[in-house]
Amino acid sequence: MKNMGHFVTFEGGDGSGKSTQVKRLATALKMRDLDVVLTREPGGAPGADEIRKLVLTGEPDRWDVMTETLLMFAARNDHVTRTIKPALAKKKWVICDRFTDSTYAYQGAGGGLERESIRRLESLVLDDFRPDLTLILDIAPDVGLERTKSRRHDETRFEKFNLAFHKRLRDSYLAIARRDPMRCVVIDAAADEKTVAAGIWNAVAERFKLK
Ligand code: TYD
């Protein structure tokens, strides 16, 4: 079934300015009187938020990669069922900070789980439900990590991994964009905040024919 609203996801590594840009896009859409639901993964529904706590706290080796992936998909199923699909059915815009591409990047390319295993889980949990548009905020990992260091101290489990891990994440996102060019737009996140926001707005306006 075609999404009735608009489902837009954001992806990117640490320090890509993603959270800021997610909020900026939501604000820009609201200013046009559009109905927007701003959400994020893992989380976005009460049950999924409980799972978020399990998966994002603790030592880096708290979960093996398959368990972690199952937790991500358990949270995603709850989120899609309770929050995303009901909002789309009401013709809302759903703007989501991370979605399944994060699982391919973090648990797949980063954690070493075969892509095929993730693909099978995706197909089981989501069937053919996909975002209408995915914005991939691309930044060199050393620049991104440097930005996060200067900004925050509340590192999640994944930010504790090293530079090589973050390089694999970036390559994975770029490969996803190459494989699925109809859905994905890569945005250069090294530019200043306003320039990045303008690039995002252009991509959204073009995809959904906004004037
Ligand atoms: P969060 O603090 O929300 O980070 P960010 O600002 O980077 O989005 O933490 C979310 C973390 O969860 C992030 O490090 C990526 C990770 N993650 C996965 O590993 N797999 C997934 O499927 C998702 C959705 C997130």
Each distinct ligand: thymidine-5'-diphosphate
Q: Which spans of ≥5 residues are poorly predicted at pLDDT below 50?
A: none
Rg, rounded, reads 16 Å
Main β-sheet, in a few words? 5 strands, parallel
Helix and strand content put the structural class at alpha/beta
| Major sheet strand order | 2-3-1-4-5
SSE string, helices as H and strands as E: EHEHHEHHEHHEH
Q: Approximately what portion of the residues adopt beta-strand conformation?
A: 5-15%
Overall, the morphology is globular
Can you give the mean pLDDT?
A: 94
Number of helices: 8
The number of E-state strands comes to: 5
The percent of residues in helical segments reads: 40-55%
